[in-house]
Amino acid sequence: MVTLRYITSMQKAALSLRISKEESKALCELALKEGVSQSSIVRRALRAYGVTPEHLPAKSGYDMIRDVVGQYRGGSKDLSTNPRHLADYGK
User: Fold this and answer.
1) Is there a domain that residue 40 lies in?
2) Which of 19, 25, 52, 73 is the most buried (most CB within 10 A)?
3) Given this model, what pLDDT does residue 3 score?
4) DSSP three-state, residue 1
């Protein structure tokens, strides 16, 4: 049996578990192959098993401002196409 101990920041809990030498070797090889830590692989396995929730997908810029897009009226509707509005652009 091999004992793995992970020391992490105060925001995360440490986990110590016993696995066989074969499991340890397989975990190490997979981590090297994927270029990630063994901890990352264990966390991914916990998510896949349903123990921990999936991470929420990152929001796009549009997602962050979606509630205000189109709410304000007035102003020119052709600011990006009318040459009159673009005369001093970039100067």
Assistant:
1) yes
2) 19
3) 56
4) coil
